[in-house]
Amino acid sequence: MRARWTWFASTLGLLSSHALADEPPVPPDVLRAWEAVRHDPRAAPAPRAPRPAPPALVRWTLANGLDVVLAPDPRDARVRVSVTWRVGDGDAPPGQRQAAHAAEHLLFRAAPGLTALGPELAAVSIGRGGGTTYSDHTVYEGESAPEHLDRLLWLEGQRMAHAERYVRAEALDAERPVLRHEAELTTGRWHFLRGLAVRAALPPAHRSHALWDDLRAVAALDVGAVEAIVRDRYAPGNARLVVAGRFDPAAARAAIERYFAPIPARPVPPRPRDDGPLVFTASRVSARTVHPAAVVIAWPGPAADGCHDAGLRVLAGTLRRSIAVDPWFGAPDPEAPRWSIDVVRQGDRTALVFEARLAPGQTHDVALRAMDAALGGATASVDALRPVEPSLRDALLDAAGEAARDLPTRTARVADVPSADDPGGFRCERATTRDVTPAALRDLTRELFAARRLVVDFHHDPAVVGLQLDGEAP
Questions:
Q1: List of residues 6+ apart from 453 with CB closer than 8 A
Q2: Which residues contact 375 (CB under 8 A, 6 or more apart)?
Q3: Which of 36, 113, 220, 306 has the most beta carbons within 10 angstroms of its beta carbon?
Q4: Are the CB atoms for 145 and 126 separated by under 8 Å?
């Protein structure tokens, strides 16, 4: 269920790029990282009454193993609840890679004697909500006005307590057209197919390994595989509940004890596949899609960290600025992107991905040579770098500020990094972005480009549904 409910975006003003550099030292308030990027007092047109400091982050574990994190912030107008389950596509048996995704769908449907959770969530949601299945985890989330927090928590408690009862053969058959439709929609999402080609080059035993045939085989889904996923993985000790935004922590805690504490604990078997490093089994892959021809180069990066890979993002930004002056590429055009270089997270690992779309008449080998030449110039610029460009730091700090202002992003990051000292890793990200040195970037460059890379040649073929892998070089 990649986008089951309507997603709303709120327009927020950008923080002055100099506000972060001039602010006083961060006090020991555990949520000061949010405050620092959400509010610049010099930008206010008139003096304001002092705002109360947000309470400390609260984290505890219920007797049944459920990990609970409360991240209150009275400046928000909404509250958000998310439950992250450690189960994803990579936990399903061979030939049943859609089992975790199907389970996510079925846990919104009606069942005998149980409430249909989808309509209930839609009735109280005023923002983003629904569910998403990834290779290594599944997230259920809802956002509402603070007065509906009890209802959101009740909904997730129902899902956790009665998950197995929602999985029925007739419900799966009714949901197959929806699952097929979502699979068809992915043919129009370039980033999904680009990532799928990279995942196909991982070892078959890797949790993130996937092929288009796996994702398309909705008709082959067996209800027994879905039942096994829910029985083995939907246990309280295999989940994390996060509540963030405007709410009363005492009331939230009482509701959590009421709805989640009575759910019995269950053992969770070892996962069938490990994430492990991103090691490519192929060096070059030929693939066909309905999208324009392109060349994609991917390098496995370091393990993801609590700083949200700030150092790697500084490196990507430095490379991006150097490549933009290359005549073959030019400055990136957001309206019609011809190339990009970005950090991509896959499970608990990172990768650097460089993409170039081909113009009519261009060949893949010519594009690859141009990309290699541009990368050579970019890495040389990193070697010659003295101070990191202040404008690049400012842009990255602004991006961190936007992430801290966005309630869904903040909730997801707290679920990922529920540190009492640095919830969501915002403080660490800001500090790393500010303090990264040219020497650190040079070391990271050498480490990154020493790893075996993967080159994917995408060919335009309007007859292809989704992604067709034609061959690979070991």
A1: 280, 283, 297, 298, 299
A2: 319, 323, 354, 449
A3: 36
A4: yes
CA 447 to CA 432: how far, in whole Å?
18
Right CATH number for 58-259 from 3.80.10.10, 3.40.190.10, 3.30.830.10, 3.40.47.10? 3.30.830.10
Structure tokens at 225: 């595989």
Q: pTM for this structure?
A: 0.85
Which has the closest alpha carbon to 172: 106, 113, 92? 106
H/E stretch holding 139 reads: strand 138-144
pLDDT by residue for the chain (474 residues), tens only, comes to 543 333 222 222 222 222 223 333 333 443 444 554 444 433 444 454 554 555 578 999 999 999 999 999 998 999 999 999 999 988 988 888 889 999 999 999 999 999 899 999 999 988 778 999 988 999 999 999 999 999 999 999 999 999 999 999 999 999 999 998 888 787 778 888 888 888 889 988 888 888 777 667 788 899 999 999 999 999 999 999 999 999 999 999 999 999 999 999 999 999 988 778 889 999 999 999 989 999 999 999 988 888 989 999 999 999 999 999 999 998 877 777 899 999 998 888 899 999 999 998 899 999 999 999 999 999 999 998 888 889 999 999 999 889 988 999 999 999 998 988 888 999 999 999 999 999 999 999 999 999 999 999 999 998 887 888 888 877
* Residue reference for tokens 């202040």: 390
Within 256-389, strands assigned E span 284-289, 294-303, 339-346, 349-357
Which residues, in sequence order, are CB contacts of 259 under 8 Å at separation 6+? 153, 154, 156, 157, 158
Selection from 391, 376, 363, 389 nearest residue 323 by Cα: 376
Which candidate, 125, 163, 155, places its Cα nearest to that of 142? 125
- Burial track 12-28 (b if 16+ CB lie within 10 A, e otherwise): eeebeeebbeeeeeeee
CATH of 284-388+436-473, one of 3.30.830.10, 3.30.420.40, 3.40.50.720, 3.40.50.300: 3.30.830.10
- Name the token pair of 150: 């009890």
d(CA 462, CA 449) in angstroms, rounded, equals 34
* CA–CA dist 408, 124 (Å, integer): 16
For 13-42, write each residue's pLDDT tens digit.
Answer: 222 222 223 333 333 443 444 554 444 433
